[in-house]
Amino acid sequence: MKIFLGPVVQAVFKPTVSGLEHVPTSGPAILAGNHVSFSDHFFVPHVLNRKVIYLAKAQYFTGQGVAGRLTASFFNALGQKPVDRESGRAGLAAIATAAEVLAEGNLLGIYPEGTRSPDGRLYRGRVGVARLWLETRAPLLPCAMIGSFEVQPPGTVWPRRHPVAVKFGPPMDLAKYDGRKRDARLYREITDDIMRAIRELSGQEYVDAYATDVKEQLAAG
Question: Using CA atoms, how far apart are residues 34 and 117, in angstroms rounded to an integer?
Fold first, then answer.
């Protein structure tokens, strides 16, 4: 996918990147970033020389007919791995799948907000990212997309031309959490630390609410 889309992405958007020195050239690492646009899936892998694997809804890989096969091929080419988000144990299944990706020595891209921002602001993180780090202890780097919301805001099908920047921060020092009891409070503290690091990179306004709740409120009018 990068071979075909890379030249187009570079020519049209000319994305800039900073902090590449923080991304390991081999071995596992978690790239925890903000999620403001569907285009994020293209820009982060574009600026890296390593494949980035994301988790995606299993339904994207199980569609029927020509359209279903094309969709599955597209998400496979993007480096996405299917997870079942509908079951009662969806969260645990996603963490297990993510841990497998890291155990294989890959870069894992994760959006702690759990969904795209409805308005470009940064929302409260889901604690799955904290549980994943505690499970794997893989290096965790904050990542920020800047400008991709303007490229493809919610409801937009075709991307618009707009400057884009990708920023990577250094691996977070989370050693202060060693030895703590694994409970909801610990998960929340780690997640909030991660979101603060993302905010420092992105410069976004922070909203202490889940983006999914805000989307539901907007849909209800």
Answer: 8
